[in-house]
Amino acid sequence: MAQHEFDLVVVGGGPGGYVAAIRAAQLKMKVAVVERDLLGGICLNWGCIPTKALLRSAEIYGLMHHLADFGFKADNIGYDFDKVIKRSRNVANQLNRGVTHLLRKNKVQVFFGEGRLDGKGTVAVAKDGKDTESIKAQHIILATGARARTLPGLEPDGEHIWTYKEAMVPKSMPKSVLVVGSGAIGTEFASFYDHLGADVTIVEILDRVLPVEDEEISAFTRKQLEKRGLKIETGAKVAELKAANGVVTGRIEPNGGEPRTFEVDRVVLAVGITGNVEQLGLEGTRVKVEKGHVVVDEWLRTGEPGVYAIGDLVGAPWLAHKASHEGVVCVERIKGLNDVHPLDVTKVPACTYCTPQVASVGLTEKAAKEQGHEVKVGRFPYIGNGKAIALGETEGLVKTVFDAKTGELLGAHMVGAEVTELIQGFVIARQMEATELDLMHTIFPHPTLSETMHESVLDAYGQVIHI
Fold first, then answer.
1. pLDDT in tens, 6-34
2. CATH tag, 161-271
3. Do strands 146-148 and 273-275 pair parallel, antiparallel, or not at all (unpaired)?
4. CA separation (Å) from 113 to 105, 124, 313?
5. Average pLDDT, stretch 320-347?
6. DSSP string spanning 135-190?
C-alpha cells in the first residue's frame, strides 16, 4: 500500500466533507478527501440539485397550461421526458466538475475508494476489496452521509418500487404514482410527477403532510396540493407491496378505517434515511452508533480521540447546508479559532420545493408554546401582496412567531412562490437576534414578495397595513 501523511483526512466528499476540506485548506492544513463514488455526494449528484432541475422543468410545463392567464396562446403543448431527465443529469454533472475544480484549486488531494478507520490516526482506502492506500492524519472527519431507509414489506426493487434515486432517472413517464411519505423528498417527487400529468397519491402515516412544519402551514400546503389534483391520505400506512406485470399492487391501511388495495405503475418510497455507518472500521473504537447514526458532542467529536463526524451521518436535520456548516464548525474548532460556535438547529432553515414551496426556521407556534413562551403570532396572505398578484401567484401565507415578552423572533413559516429564497431574511434575523422592532423598522422594497414578511411581523403587533 502507498503511505501518506496529512493533517486532516475527510472520509466522504459530499456537501459536508468537501466544504470541511476546503475550509481546512484555507487554514493551512494539509488535507485529503476519500470518496467512494462522486464528489459532491448524494445532494449534488442524486438529491438537492438534480431534483430542483427536474422540478424547474415540471413547473415550466405546469405554467404553460395557464398561458391564457398571461395573454398567450399555444397549441399542442407537450414535453420530451428523456430530455427533462437528461437536463437534470447535465446540471448535476456540471456541478460535480465544479467541486473537483474547487478541491484542486485549494490543493486538497482526493483519493477515490472506500475509506475506513484502520487503527489510531489511520484511514485505509480500498478499491475492489483490496487496500491501496494508507493515510495517516492527526484528525479524521467522517462525512459518509446517509441512504434511503427501507421498511419491512416496503423494499425497493429498482424497477417498479423506487427510492429517490430511481425516481430521478425513470426510463419512462408513469401514468400513476403512489408516494409513501410526505416529508420534503416525498412531497417534491409527488409535485414533479403531478405537474407532468401522472395520477399521484401521497400516503403519510402521521396525521398531516410535511409533519415537521408548522401545523397551519401543513394544512395550507395540503389544501393547495389537493386543489391541483393530488390525492392525499394521512394517518395511514402502506403494506404488502408487490410488483408484477409492470404494475405495483399493495394495501393502504388507514388508522381505524377499512384497508383497501391499490394498483399503480410506480411507488416512490420516501420514509426517511439512515446513516452510512457500515464498513467504516468503527469496531474496536469508541465511536458510538445509535439508531443508525454516529453520536457526537456539540463540537462534532465522537468518543474516539481525533475522530469527528458531520452531516447526515450524525442525524437530523438531514440538510446539505447543515452538513456544510458542521464541516466548517468542526474544522475551525480543530484549529482552535476563538469565534467558533456550536450549531444551533433552531437557526437552520428548512426548504421544500414542491408547488407551492414551503420554508421555515425556528420554532413552530405549537413548539414555542410547549416550551413555555407566551407568543404573538402574525400572518399575511399572498393575496394581499401586489407582486404576488402581478406574478399570478396569490396562494401563499407567511407566519411569524414572537416571544410576547422579549420580542424575539422564535420562528418563521412560509408557503408560497419563492419562499425558499425569502426565508433567508428571517434566518439572518434569528442569527442576529433581531427583535420585532428591528424587523418592523426595516424598509422592504416595493413591489416584492418580501413585503409579505414585513406585513406578517406588523400583523403580530397589530400594525399590519394591507389586510
1. 999 999 999 999 999 999 999 999 999 99
2. 3.50.50.60
3. antiparallel
4. 21, 9, 18
5. 96
6. EEEEEEEE---EEE---TT----SSSEE-HHHHHS-SS--SEEEEE--SHHHHHHH
Alpha helix stretches (DSSP H) within 236-334: 320-334
Query: Which residues are annotated as catalytic?
Result: 446
**301, 4 in Cβ contact below 8 A?**
no
Distance of CA 181 to CAs 54, 201, 272, 325, Å?
A: 19, 10, 8, 27
Cα–Cα distance list, 189 to 42, 198, 353 (Å): 16, 11, 9
Going by C-alpha positions, the residue among 462, 421, 457, 465 that lies closest to residue 441 is 457
Is the per-residue pLDDT at 151 higher than 90? no
Give 357-411 pLDDT, tens digit per residue: 999 999 999 999 999 999 999 999 999 999 999 999 999 999 999 999 999 999 9
List, in order, residues 6 or more apart from 178 with CB less than 8 Å away: 200, 201, 202, 203, 238, 248, 250, 262, 264, 266, 267, 268
Q: What residue spans in the chain does CATH classification 3.30.390.30 cover?
A: 356-460
Which segments of the chain belong to CATH 3.50.50.60? 2-148+274-345, 161-271
- pTM exceeds cut of 0.70: yes
The CATH architecture one would assign to domain 356-460 is 2-Layer Sandwich (3.30)
Residue 101 φ/ψ, nearest 5 degrees = -65, -45
Distance set, CA 264 to CA 159, 230, 247 (Å): 13, 14, 6
At 125 the three-state DSSP class reads: strand
| The three cell numbers locating residue 387 | 407582486
Structure-block grid coordinates of residue 361: 426556521
Q: Which residues pair with 309 in a beta bridge?
A: 142
Q: pLDDT grade, residue 1 (50/70/90)?
A: confident
Tally DSSP H helices, then E strands, for the chain: 13, 24
Task: Report the C-alpha gap between 450 and 458 in whole angstroms.
Answer: 13
2-148+274-345 maps to which CATH number?
3.50.50.60
Return the DSSP state at 240. E
Q: Within 13 Å, how many C-alpha atoms sit on residue 16's CB side?
A: 29
The rounded distance, in Å, linking the Cα atoms of 175 and 169 is 16
And the C-alpha cell for 212?
Answer: 415537521
What distance in Å separates the CA atoms of residue 426 and residue 450, rounded to the nearest whole number?
10
Give the burial string for 246-285 (b: 16+ CB within 10 Å, else e).
Answer: eebebebbeeeeeeeebebbbbbbbbbbbbbbeebbbeeb
Residues 189-222 have pLDDT tens digits of 999 999 999 999 999 999 999 999 999 999 999 9
Whether residue 324 contacts residue 16, with contact meaning beta carbons closer than 8 Å, is answered with yes
Under the banding of pLDDT at 50, 70 and 90, the label for residue 150 is confident
